[in-house]
What we know:
Layout: H1 6-11, E1 19-20, E2 23-27, H2 34-40, E3 48-49, H3 51-62, E4 67-75, E5 78-85, E6 89-95, H4 102-109, H5 119-135, E7 138-139, E8 142-149, E9 155-162, E10 165-166, E11 168-175, H6 210-213, H7 216-226, E12 233-234, E13 238-242, E14 247-255, E15 261-269, H8 276-280, H9 293-308, E16 316-324, E17 329-337, E18 343-350, H10 357-361, H11 374-387, E19 390-399, E20 404-413, E21 417-426, E22 430-439, E23 448-456, E24 459-468, E25 476-488, E26 492-506, E27 511-526, E28 543-555, E29 567-576, E30 583-596, H12 598-601, E31 606-621, E32 647-649, E33 657-659, E34 664-677, E35 682-694, E36 701-714, E37 717-727, E38 738-742
Parallel strand pairs: 2-5, 6-9, 11-14, 15-17, 18-20
Antiparallel strand pairs: 1-3, 4-5, 7-10, 8-9, 12-14, 13-14, 16-17, 19-20, 21-22, 22-23, 23-24, 24-25, 25-26, 26-27, 27-28, 28-29, 29-30, 30-31, 31-34, 32-33, 34-35, 35-36, 36-37, 37-38
Amino acid sequence: MRIFLATTLTLLSINSFAYTIKAINYDGMVHISKSVALRMLPFSVGSDVDDEMIDKSIKKYFKQGYFNDIWVDFKDGVLTYHFKEKALISKVELKGWKEGDKDILDSVVQIKRGSLYDEKKLEAAKKRIIETISHDGKIDSVVEIEKEYLDNGSIKVTFVVNEGEEIIIDNLVYSGVSGLDSDLFDDVISNKEHQFMGWFWGRNDGELSLSDLEYDPLRIRDLYMQYGYLDAKVDSPFVRVNFDHYTADMSYQIKEGEVYNISAVSINQVVHVIDDEKIREVISLQKGKAFNIKTFREDAKKIKTIIADLSYAFVQVVPDLKKDKKKHTVEVVFKIIPGDKVRIRNVLISGNTRTLDRIIRRELYLGPGDMYSLTDLKDSRNSLGRLGYFDSNTIEEKRVDNHTMDLIVKVKEAPTGNVQIGGGYGSYGGLMVSLSVDDRNIWGSGINIGVKAEKSQMTQNYSFNISNPRLNDSDFSGNFSIYKSAYDYNDYSVYTNGLSIGTGHRFTRHISGYLGYNYSSNSYDLDDSVDQTTVDDYYFEDYAKSSITVSMSYDSTDDYYLPREGFTFSQGIERSGLGADADFFKSRTRFGKYTGLEDYVGFDAIFRYKARFYYVEDTGYLPIAERFYMGGIGSVRGYESYSLSPRIADSRSSTGYRLIGGKQTFSNNVELSFPLVPKAKMRLVTYVDWGFIGDDSLSEISRGGYGAGIEWFSPVGPIQLMFSRPLNDKPDDRTSGFEFTMGQRF
């Protein structure tokens, strides 16, 4: 910093100890306004100042952090401050690590565009990068800072990262373990011993995670407490690193103690608000059994829920353990402090830039004036999620006083409609062009409207549908659709024209019913190459269908497209034969179970099990098209859609046989879904499918498939891309290695 004070002022013919200020000027100052700068001075125009006062003012300006240099001159009573400001940083990049990751730039680097160049802040950012990499178990990382001065005078800063080596845990030893099998620890800790083929899914890679090192002993102790070892002590692990090979030996010293059995479970209500026996009904801990800390916590949550459902929104459940170390028993005490009953004062909606307020409010089970209920609050969140209109939703509880609260409903709109004009290649229909306009929430009204025109090498589909899940905001729903389709097979085509209309009713929060009517006319057109004198008319009779459908469904899931909890169950019955040719009875049963695994594995994994059982009985005339076929997404992947069914020999067909469909089919799917690219809403799914189909028994045809795929919430809707391999396939099966679908629930 250049400061020309005493010498400069002495050369001026004024008093060398005190100067009278006639004016104060600033040169080169941008980030501080003149009025603010003047207020920072301990003197003003007209004051007498000395060298020490000016020196202090320069230091005060310099502490603001905006300047590389400050100096002054004094002439004819005018004091002028000269500033050399720091350059602006116009661009920040990472090279060699997390390139293009905006979240890392914001959370770790913390150097913003437009900020002033500051060496100390850059060095601090460098240290944060190294610390973050070290948390992944990598040491000896090197970060260099490159500076580039641009033409506009700003600076581009690049952090060049050379990641260090990973530490692999070669040997992990537990001392003092006798009551539990140490293999159980692998289920809870992050730092595990390297296993052979550790790179393979489901095996331990042995990579050291420093960020988890301090928590692993707590996880082991918590596991012990799940088996009743209340006195268990787990010391911090001793880690010895071989820096020549970047391997480590790790050891734990553990003192298990004794297993504590429950001597009593006591309930202490500070204010009696509910019968103790009703609380005991939800408690799983039992006298005489070994204590389990996990069950203990779950019981506390259950107690809180049943009390909060009585409108005690601010209830506290304070659990306590009274240990008898001599007898190795423990008395479990649940102290309940209910507080006051709480009423909802107001419900505020935010974030719905498109969806109308009333569409959201009608899904809420709490409104202004209602008494608080924790179960109602959770069910409201899940009900909003099942709409499929929002990417996310939260309901915040804002305490007004001890007796009232406001609910703040925050939603983030999701794309529910799209217009598509384009083409593609389908795994079943070949080359396809389509035009479709659809919206599940048109104009934010909750009404679903769709118009579709699609043509491929094998299919033509034209349809219009409109449905309202809440007619006039009631519990009744309604739908109407008309459709026209054509399917070209090897030597014949099927043409269908139809319409359907129906109404539904929501009986409870999770149970709904539906009654619908469907009419369709179906005709066949045989290829000229087919000898029509030898064709069995049974397989190619034109027919009309008039049917009534009745169904009941249960849905307790928390999201429409990507549920993480709850299950679905539906049972539908169709009766055909109302004044038309087709005469049959059909039953469709579906089941789905969804479980989020984040609490168990530490990331957003989802387990799914889905099953379906279909059955049809011929009560007069059962057309071939009304029978069941298996294969493809929704039943058994790895086979072409609708390619698995009973068949008959047919020399006229190019395949030598003709599919005639089955009267009963059962298929089930087990899936694991993992986050792949969270920012792009893209997930990886692995799956195993197995299904059965036949006329008289399900054992007639049995096929399976397995594979992996991509689940992507794309800008045009949810897309599934599936890569499959068949199981138990036969030589003449029509297998498929790739399939995709759009708009379906995962």
